[in-house]
Structures are given as structure tokens and as C-alpha cells.
Amino acid sequence: MSRNEMTASYLKALGHPVRLMIARELIQGQKCVGEVESTLNIRQANASQHLSILKINGIVDCIRKGNLKCYFLKEPEKIEQLLDILERYQ
Amino acid sequence: MSRNEMTASYLKALGHPVRLMIARELIQGQKCVGEVESTLNIRQANASQHLSILKINGIVDCIRKGNLKCYFLKEPEKIEQLLDILERYQ
DNA sequence: TATGAATATGAAAATAATCTTATAAAAGGA
DNA sequence: TCCTTTTATAAGATTATTTTCATATTCATA
After folding, report:
1. Confidence band for B89, pLDDT divided at 50, 70 and 90
2. B45 touches strand D (CB under 7 A)
3. What is the CATH number of domain B3-87?
4. Does B87 have pLDDT greater than 80?
5. d(Cα B19, Cα B71) in Å, to the nearest integer?
6. Strands, E, within chain A: which ranges?
7. Where are the domains of chain B?
8. Residue B57 C-alpha, separation from nearest chain A C-alpha, in angstroms
């Protein structure tokens, strides 16, 4: 997979409203699947699948905490910087 | 369309290998459809369609020059900054 | 080890994106 | 006006993504 394809895949992973919103939520701090599910008001399976796509693309990672699985941004500053650039008006 | 949806749509537009490569090419300077077509080795119709998606999302704009239609990045620095962040290794 | 809570996965249906071919439209020049 | 070049668009086939439901898995704890 070329660098261009890797970058495109990363952008595509973020380029879905639910996944982008998950990333925004995770800027605030880590969340378990159930919290993502209820915050975004989506089905559990769907939350899990979107998180999986973010994980595959290196955007999030997770740790198990007992019964829960907590997802967090791997590079929170990177996400913040991207959003800053994307959403500052010029 | 919410800000989140707008941003997701912008990311999605860039999140295709062909369109991302077009954006990279346009950092060098404006190109007409035929140049995009031959540089990326894709069909004319496909080049036109990808450019249209970039245009709808405010990533490129174009001017007619006689027979040709020249596409260019609307915010080249924004694209450069995004690529810098996405591809600098941390 | 059985149960319950949380998460992941498989499969199917619904929807959307992509690519191709054929053709239309726009503009310049003979 | 007719022809040529360039670009856009329509339509269809194909492929990919998204969502849902049902079920499996994982782990803690009774």
C-alpha cells in the first residue's frame, strides 16, 4: 500500500459523520463502546464496527478495563490539528 | 448540513486515492482535465467526475481557458498543511 | 462453572460509490 | 456553418460501504 493510499484510507476513515464525531468525542477523553453508542445514539454493533474501522486505520486504540473496552485517540494532537485546519475559516 | 457533516464530506472527498493524488498534482499548479487524465492514467470521464466531486466539496475550482478547463486548488496552503500533518511521522 | 454485562462478529438487506461506455455540450478554427 | 477538440453528463454494471439483527465471545463475579 503506497503512502498515497495509506493517507487516503486514513482520510476516508475520518470522512464519515459518525466516525468523525467519535473522534471529536475522544478528544475529550477515552470512552468505552457503550458510551459511544449512547452518546451518538447508534446501535451497539454499529458503534463497534465504526470503532474497528478507526482502529484498523491507526486513529484509535483500545485497552480493556475489566468488562469494558476503552477506546482512545492514538494521536490526539494530530486529530486536533487536522480539525483546526479543516474548520478554521480562511 | 451540520459542520460535522461538512467536514466529514470534505475528508471523504479527499479520501480516495485518485482524488488525493489529483490534489497533490494541483499543489504544483493548475491542470486541465486532459492533463489530469494522462498524468493519473485514468479515463477522461472518470477524471471529470473526480474533479467534480472535489469542486462540489470546495477543494478545487476551475476556469475556462478557451478550449480547456483548468482546475486549481481553492486553498492550496490548507491542503499542504493537511498533508504535512497527515504524513509527517510522529 | 453458571450467569450477566459488554463487546465483537457474521450474514443479509439497503444504500452509496465507482468505473465504463456512449453521447451531449461547449468552444475554437476552417 | 461544419468539423475537431475538450470536457461534462447520463445510464448501467459492478463493487464497496453501511446498517441491522442475531448470535458469539469475553470477562467478572456469584
Report:
1. confident
2. yes
3. 1.10.10.10
4. yes
5. 13
6. 31-32, 60-65, 68-73
7. 3-87
8. 12
DSSP string, chain B: --HHHHHHHHHHHH-SHHHHHHHHHHHH--EEHHHHHHHHT--HHHHHHHHHHHHHTTSEEEEEETTEEEEEESSHHHHHHHHHHHHS--
Whether the CB-CB separation of B28 and B73 falls below 8 Å is answered with: no
Contacts of B48 (CB under 8 A, 6+ apart): B33
Cell of residue B35, nine digits:
492533463
Cβ <8 Å between B20 and A11: yes
Task: Tell me the nt nearest to A69, Cα to C1'.
Answer: C7
Strand C and B50 CB separated by under 7 Å:
yes
Query: A20-66 pLDDT, tens per residue?
Result: 999 999 999 999 999 999 999 999 999 999 999 999 999 999 999 99
pLDDT of residue A89: 85
Which nucleotides of chain D are near protein (any atom < 7 Å from a CB)? 5-10, 17-23, 26-29
